[in-house]
Amino acid sequence: MNAIELKAPPYPLDALEPHMSKSTFEYHWGKHHKTYVDNLNKQIAGKDWENKELEEIVLASWNNGSPTPEFNNAAQFGSGWAWLNSDKSGKLSISKTPNAVLPVVEGKSPILTCDVWEHAYYIDYQNRRPDFIQTFMDKLINWDMVSQRYAAAQQ
Ligand SMILES: [Fe+2]
């Protein structure tokens, strides 16, 4: 059994059609995302991190800003993403992150994110990133979940 599991989305892969296709999920989640999970499991096999939660591995491998090789695979899900964050007082901020950096390493709680790397939208939108972002904003955000995360960030 692998230490870190590739978690399936909490809905069928075609649930967001026509706004995001099953094919996008099959490639973005089933191939790109899976590769990072598989590579992280190879890196942590037989080490103390094998029995840790993913967020613990992200924070430990961040290594106070001098990331270890494991950080790239553990946190890569944040590379090129745009974030809406909350701090413990409820103050909101928007950020973007390079090279797998996640808001959690800066002590912020992400409550909404949009992956704007090409693999997140190229099958359905080709080079039309603004169309993807507009559809994301208009059709795909679960605001109830964002509200729940916002409340949790302040506890
Ligand atoms: Fe991505």
Automatic annotation (TrEMBL):
<comment type="function">
    <text>Destroys radicals which are normally produced within the cells and which are toxic to biological systems.</text>
</comment>
<dbReference type="Pfam" id="PF02777">
    <property type="entry name" value="Sod_Fe_C"/>
</dbReference>
<dbReference type="GO" id="GO:0042644">
    <property type="term" value="C:chloroplast nucleoid"/>
</dbReference>
<dbReference type="InterPro" id="IPR036324">
    <property type="entry name" value="Mn/Fe_SOD_N_sf"/>
</dbReference>
<dbReference type="InterPro" id="IPR019832">
    <property type="entry name" value="Mn/Fe_SOD_C"/>
</dbReference>
<feature type="binding site">
    <location>
        <position position="119"/>
    </location>
    <ligand>
        <name>Mn(2+)</name>
    </ligand>
</feature>
<dbReference type="InterPro" id="IPR019831">
    <property type="entry name" value="Mn/Fe_SOD_N"/>
</dbReference>
<dbReference type="GO" id="GO:0046872">
    <property type="term" value="F:metal ion binding"/>
</dbReference>
<comment type="similarity">
    <text>Belongs to the iron/manganese superoxide dismutase family.</text>
</comment>
<feature type="binding site">
    <location>
        <position position="28"/>
    </location>
    <ligand>
        <name>Mn(2+)</name>
    </ligand>
</feature>
<dbReference type="InterPro" id="IPR019833">
    <property type="entry name" value="Mn/Fe_SOD_BS"/>
</dbReference>
<dbReference type="InterPro" id="IPR001189">
    <property type="entry name" value="Mn/Fe_SOD"/>
</dbReference>
<feature type="domain" description="Manganese/iron superoxide dismutase C-terminal">
    <location>
        <begin position="73"/>
        <end position="149"/>
    </location>
</feature>
<dbReference type="InterPro" id="IPR036314">
    <property type="entry name" value="SOD_C_sf"/>
</dbReference>
<protein>
    <recommendedName>
        <fullName>Superoxide dismutase</fullName>
        <ecNumber>1.15.1.1</ecNumber>
    </recommendedName>
</protein>
<keyword id="KW-0560">Oxidoreductase</keyword>
<dbReference type="GO" id="GO:0004784">
    <property type="term" value="F:superoxide dismutase activity"/>
</dbReference>
<dbReference type="Pfam" id="PF00081">
    <property type="entry name" value="Sod_Fe_N"/>
</dbReference>
<keyword id="KW-0479">Metal-binding</keyword>
<feature type="domain" description="Manganese/iron superoxide dismutase N-terminal">
    <location>
        <begin position="5"/>
        <end position="62"/>
    </location>
</feature>
<feature type="binding site">
    <location>
        <position position="115"/>
    </location>
    <ligand>
        <name>Mn(2+)</name>
    </ligand>
</feature>
